[in-house]
Amino acid sequence: MSSLLQNKIALVTGASRGIGAGIAAELARIGAHVIINHLQTPEEAESVARRIIQDGGSATVRCFDVSDSAAVKHDVEELEEQVGPIGIVVNNAGIVRDRSFRKMSADEWHAVLGVNLNGAMHVCSAVVNSMASRGYGRIVNISSFVAQAGNFGQTNYAASKAGMIGFSRALALELAPHGVTVNCVCPGFIETEMWRSIPEQMRESILKRIPQARVGSVSEVAAAVRFLVDEGSYITGQTLNVNGGIFIG
Ligand code: NAD
């Protein structure tokens, strides 16, 4: 196993499955100790950790709700005491509550903003002082092409993911002098449970809109995150699109 990130601790939120699990495995593969955060999916999270350990990596599982600022602060403090200082954060936890805007309830709006955008802010808030004081940090926020292109029925999701991009740019400016980079990765449609749950007819019509005529893989998103973490020392405030050409801009 490579040891590019030896002695680095990486917190990946929402890492019990899908894209987050792939990112955790990739960062572990190059030597990081990964903290697999999840919400109410302990078996899936333990199984991600087991696979990482079987492959020679190291991992810790931790359940907390990223939308709960007090829980995030408490758990990050405790983790840093137990495991060590967190140098890498991937804000990946995300939810959808799709509905056309005219039918969307305020609760559906706030739930999505609460996890996707506020969650990223809570985690960043809990780690940035310690990163800045040590002069090293890599923050990668998982946004979406929907932030850039919009999508029917996803005003709440699009707002949360576009908010992540603006947040990342502003935070990148504040943290640049302290050795901390902040970037976004915007995936297009990725082969996850979410994709597989879309009815076949709709999947076929989506595929027609993707210039590369296929969905992306979890490992293609994980590779982009690994690049920003491991080789992106002079890249900050940027948005890296991993989307098969569905949005070019
Ligand atoms: P998923 O639904 O398969 O997994 C979500 C993860 O987030 C799970 O581990 C879940 O436990 C965790 N989670 C949910 N709410 C949480 C909370 N409040 N606190 C902590 N953890 C929480 O998701 P996915 O499809 O792998 O997507 C991962 C990220 O990538 C999301 O932010 C999503 O918006 C983004 N994204 C996904 C796609 C796609 O095609 N799947 C495309 C673009 C962007």
Could you explain the architecture of this structure?
The protein has helices spanning 18-29, 42-54, 69-82, 106-134, 146-149, 155-175, 193-196, 200-209, 218-231; strands at 9-12, 33-38, 58-63, 88-91, 137-142, 180-187, 239-242. With 249 residues, the protein is an alpha/beta fold. It has a single domain (9-191, 219-239), classed as Rossmann fold (3-Layer(aba) Sandwich). The protein has a seven-stranded parallel sheet, with helices on both faces. Nicotinamide-adenine-dinucleotide binds at residues 13-20, 37-39, 41, 65-67, 92-95, 115, 142, 144, 187, 189-190, 192-195. Nicotinamide-adenine-dinucleotide binds next to helix 1, strand 2 and helix 7.
**CA-based shape:** globular
Query: What level of helicity do the residues show?
Result: 40-55%
Major sheet attributes: 7 strands, parallel
Following the backbone from N to C, one meets helices and strands in this order, namely EHEHEHEHEHHEHHHE
CATH superfamily: NAD(P)-binding Rossmann-like Domain
Query: Which hetero ligands occur in this complex?
Result: nicotinamide-adenine-dinucleotide
Q: How large, in whole angstroms, is the Cα Rg?
A: 17 Å
Mean pLDDT: 97
Number of strands: 7
Strand percent estimate: 15-25%
Briefly characterize the structure.
Helix content is 49%, strand content 15%. The protein is an alpha/beta fold and 249 residues long. It has a single domain, classed as 3-Layer(aba) Sandwich (Rossmann fold), CATH 3.40.50.
